[in-house]
Amino acid sequence: LMERKTHAKINRKEVMLAKLRKSCSCTPQKLKNLVMDFFPVLRWLPKYRCKEYIWGDVMSGLVIGIILVPQAIAYSLLAGLKPIYSLYTSFFANIIYFLMGTSRHVSVGIFSLISLMVGQVVDRELLLAGFDLNDDAPPASGDGSLQNDSLSNTTAFNLTIVGINAECGKECYAIGIATALTFVAGVYQVLMGIFRLGFVSMYLSESVLDGFATGASLTILTAQVKYLIGIKIPRSQGHGMLVITWINIFRNISQANLCDVITSAICIVVLVTAKELGDRYKHKLKFPLPTELVVIAVATLVSHYGKLNEVYASSVSGAIPTGFIPPKVPQFNLMLRVAVDALPLAIVSFVFTVSLSEMFAKKYAYTIRANQEMFAVGFCNIIPSFFHSFATSAALAKTLVKTSTGCQTQVSGVISAMVVLLVLLFLAPLFYSLQKCVLACIIIVSLRGALRKFKDVPARYHVNKMDTLVWVVTMSASALVSTEVGLLAGIVFSMLCIVVRTQRPRTALLGQIQDTGFYEDDLEYENLSTVPKVKIFRFEAPLYYANRNYFLKSLYRMTNLDPNLEAAARKKYEKKEKQHLKKENHRTVNGLGIRETTLQLVPKQIDFQVLVVDCSCISFLDTTGVNTLKEILKDYKNLNISVLLACCNPSVIDSLKRGGYFGRDFGSMQEMLFYSIHNAVLFAKEQK
């Protein structure tokens, strides 16, 4: 046996006290480092290489800003809020991430998936408060002031039920719910950063995230169809929203607005064609085509001068005010109503941001701090919630555009924020006549990437069937039930898959590769030779309480010997033999009779004398696992069969020692434990 190193015992109490003293101590240098860690911009901005970086940052910032404006206006439909709030969200998120983010390339702002999750909570609370969810009424042609909110829904609602002793219209209540939800989600993210709970993201596998995004994309697509064809149907809420919405669409298809249908068809053709051409010739283009902005500009002009709203009753965006609304503290009582909804929102927002940050950091050879990213995205939610904004996250599509246009640092985010600010201060009212069907087209075309995941299912199935099943379950639950249930179902199902894999793992009997000291699965490889009188059994999983029975059943089946049944058969034979001897007055019975009795009671000859258990795949043992190995050691010993363990890792060896597998003084350890299968086989041959 190799000698184990003696590790010095660590006094955990003293270590924790030392860490606590270190963290609680305050020196000028430590305070400076703390501030600079919390605001990474203080570290990298003084080192900014203006001549080298500025052109790429300005170019990418302008392009992202141009893309952000139409997307922000469009995604307001998903969130169930007015377009002005989406513009606020895009502005503040870029500024705060510039100050606190550690990734140079991700684009943080409004994201379709997050907007959908916010919109579902807003719709539910509006419905519970007694508001009409139908948002297709003609817009007010007011002076652009936010005080004229939701004149089409004139029934003011006294919010004493949630502790707001004032009358509040539909829009006021909707943004109140959204800001409360955003604030709580941000608090969750900051708390996760403080307590270093970033490991939660590990439970969201790639299959779960892809399935969740695809299922949510189907929900987003379904929610936009009514705008595409210009029909007025109630906004469905709760579980099964996708199915109910499609039923309502087909029931009301005869009421489709021809103007909206034609506009939608033209916009989708233009957008898809431009996207496909952009993808095909992206290496030749210095920056992506601003197709969304061109479509919005042309559609707004056509709608305004063609009077599509007045003549054809086409639904338009309505008045978008300029400037900023005075900040307002999110209502605490509303936070209590949405506290549970904020948790999945916080996790999804953080996971997408950190995964994208890590992906691009690896691609461009720099490092990010996941914990600081959690703080950054948390404050991108907390601070903007005071300024009538809703939840944000990093978005893959905009991040790809950002990197392809030469982005070097988060200075590009400030440039994008300035573009949005320009729209907020001066250009917002120009979008009054923009048709909602155009915004719906932009949203649907932006889902191409997620919907294309369906094409990858055969390849995914070929790579890993279990991961494909996780993807299908998550996608189906997200689309057919709800996004929150889909995410939870995906996490739970993926964990169950792991449990099932360890409960019923692969098992094998090994044979020797000829003229070598190596052993492999006899069923998988040709020309392996069996070792006479030795069985080598491999179990490819940890041995614990959940798979104990499967371990024993597999061992007995593959060795073709159940020691308990064999021992019982031998006892029965011995008892029968004693009865025969007693009846014949201790005279020997004839040989034929004995052979017949033996054949009946001991059905077969045991063809091995040594069992070698390959423990190379057993990563740990619990108490049940140790007891199981002790049990087979005892049972096989009763049949004069030796049990040898090979390739145990130190953790397994320690568990066996603590469990008394080797006896009190470990004296027989050298004859029971081997560091390779071949050593165990050689020992077995010597003992024979």
TrEMBL record:
Compartment(s) of residence: Apical cell membrane
Catalysis performed (reactions): oxalate(out) + 2 chloride(in) = oxalate(in) + 2 chloride(out); oxalate(in) + sulfate(out) = oxalate(out) + sulfate(in); nitrate(in) + chloride(out) = nitrate(out) + chloride(in); bromide(in) + chloride(out) = bromide(out) + chloride(in)
InterPro entries, alphabetized: S04_transporter_CS (IPR018045), SLC26A/SulP_dom (IPR011547), SLC26A/SulP_fam (IPR001902), STAS_dom (IPR002645), STAS_dom_sf (IPR036513)
Molecular function terms from GO: secondary active sulfate transmembrane transporter activity
Gene3D superfamilies per UniProt: STAS domain
GO cellular component: a single term: apical plasma membrane
Domain of life (superkingdom): Eukaryota
Topology of the protein relative to the lipid bilayer: Multi-pass membrane protein
Keyword Phosphoprotein belongs to the record: yes
TM segment ranges: 53-77, 106-122, 173-195, 207-229, 249-273, 334-354, 375-397, 417-447, 468-496
Keywords in alphabetical order: Cell membrane, Glycoprotein, Membrane, Phosphoprotein, Transmembrane, Transmembrane helix, Transport
Keyword Cell inner membrane: no
Ranges for domain STAS: 524-684
Homology family: Belongs to the SLC26A/SulP transporter (TC 2.A.53) family.
Protein name: Sulfate transporter
Taxonomic source organism: Sakesphorus luctuosus
The encoding gene: Slc26a1
